[in-house]
Amino acid sequence: MAEQGEEDRQYREYRRLEDCEEDSPPGEEEEEQLLLHVTEGPTDSWHHIKDLDISLTLPHIYHFHQRNGFACVVLSDILELVQFLFVVTFSTFLLCCVDYDVLFATRPLNHSHVPEHAKVTLPDAVLPAPQCARRLRGSGWLLFLLVLAGAVWLCRLVTALRRLVGFWEIRSFYIRALGIPAEELCNHSWQSVQARLLALQRRQPLCVPRRELTELDIHHRILRFRNYTVAMVNKSLLPVRFRLPLLGPVVFLTRGLQFNLELLLFRGPAALFQNTWSLRPQVKRAGARRALARGL
């Protein structure tokens, strides 16, 4: 009984919020998404944006501020692409263009001008370019991995370009709608940006919710997935706590495990959410939850 009472007390800590979408008919989901949309005034150029859900969602506006503006975003993406190329190129060089027998002195050098007991240097262990190319062409699995790495790099390049297009729209929104020039973004805290966002909404319509946009709405949209993850960990729905012999209770949540959990619960084809914050209609029906849980 004591354990049951403790469990009931813990569940009472999480109170169900009113959900205005519970009985919404199909087709209204897109109309109820929280989208920034300036309809009149000095920022009426936003009428031409075709996909507001991608380019101007609150999480993207928040991440744009946290990443210190468009220039930092561009530089970060470029450095990530260059880093990927460097890792692949340097790994290929170490596999194909280095004679490790010479490097570790298990085989003497064959250069006539080098004394027998001379110190081995890095240039002595590097193979000539033609020999390196032959070793590369003779390894089928390495060629396959290079092709795969090239495909991954191209996918990352396309993703970065698409993300930059969205961030460019957000940059224009900061400048024209919020009145924050790009060079002054670093001087504004997120609380300042949020205050300008709410003030702009009071002057003219900014979003398409059924109730007024508040600070709590903004925080819910930005931290929706993280709040769900924290709640599931608190309720022991995610297996991240283990008891090991001699060590006692430990928490195990690696980056890889976290990525797989997010893909399964939030971003995959069977995820609970159908976009950045809206739950799927079938998840809201209590009668279908047991079947959905078995399928998941």
TrEMBL record:
Chain spans, region Disordered: 1-29
Biased composition (Acidic residues): 19-29
Entry-linked Pfam families: ATG9
Membrane topology: Multi-pass membrane protein
Start-end of Basic and acidic residues biased regions: 7-18
Coiled-coil parts of chain: none
Cellular-component GO terms for this entry: autophagosome; phagophore assembly site membrane
Domain of life: Eukaryota
Physiological role: Phospholipid scramblase involved in autophagy. Cycles between the preautophagosomal structure/phagophore assembly site (PAS) and the cytoplasmic vesicle pool and supplies membrane for the growing autophagosome. Lipid scramblase activity plays a key role in preautophagosomal structure/phagophore assembly by distributing the phospholipids that arrive through ATG2 from the cytoplasmic to the luminal leaflet of the bilayer, thereby driving autophagosomal membrane expansion.
Family (UniProt): Belongs to the ATG9 family.
PANTHER family per the UniProt record, alphabetical: APG9 AUTOPHAGY 9 (PTHR13038), AUTOPHAGY-RELATED PROTEIN 9B (PTHR13038:SF14)
Protein name: Autophagy-related protein 9
UniProt organism field: Chaetorhynchus papuensis
Origin organism lineage: Eukaryota, Metazoa, Chordata, Craniata, Vertebrata
